[in-house]
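Reading a protein record of the kind used here takes only a little practice. An example makes this concrete, so a full record is given next.
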Amino acid sequence: MGPLFFLVVINDLTKMVPIYKYVDDCKIFEETSHWSASSDVQAHLDSTNQWIVNNNMRINAKTTQELNICFAKSPPILQPLTNDNVPLDCVQLTKLLGISIQSNLKWDLHDGTICRKASKRLYSLRCLKLSGVLPKDLCSVFSCFIRPVVEYACPVWHSSLSNALFDELQQIQKRATKIMLPGLSYRERTRSSETTHPPRAQR
């Protein structure tokens, strides 16, 4: 019930500032035309800080950062944001609910992160294979333990992947199926695994 009660407590915050919130993770946002250098984010941040004080809460200064996204040839010069008179770090990369978002809106760093995480979990698959676990059960382990890492929040970023990044993700499945069903071609391995798990939409 904790997350539900927290949402009830901060429900009125959205009436004060433009904000995205999920449990205790809140993001203030603003769209600014490239010909305008004015910004209301600092005012929204100050209002949020005042609301936090009034509700006996504290803001996590270490995770409070500024991320600017602009593709104009001459980006507007905005005043640095401050939190309680302390300047915020202006970063090129931030995480939002486990998704790495870059200021250039590319997905190479996010792709690299999930590929490294999934690759580490392939070791468990190899250990189970050496222990004599059947391919059918290995497919279940892959679907429950490794595949969710690769497919987490994929509707957000999958359609924007380059061919090179897509191939990196595809290598995870190729390596996994080779561990489970060695001696077969990749097409044969995927068909064999589909007998246990229905195929999903592919690019």
Notes: Residues 108-194 form one domain. The CA atoms of residues 71 and 95 lie 20 Å apart. Helices lie at 2-9, 41-54, 108-130, 135-151, 154-157, 163-180, 186-194. The chain has two domains: 2-91, 108-194.
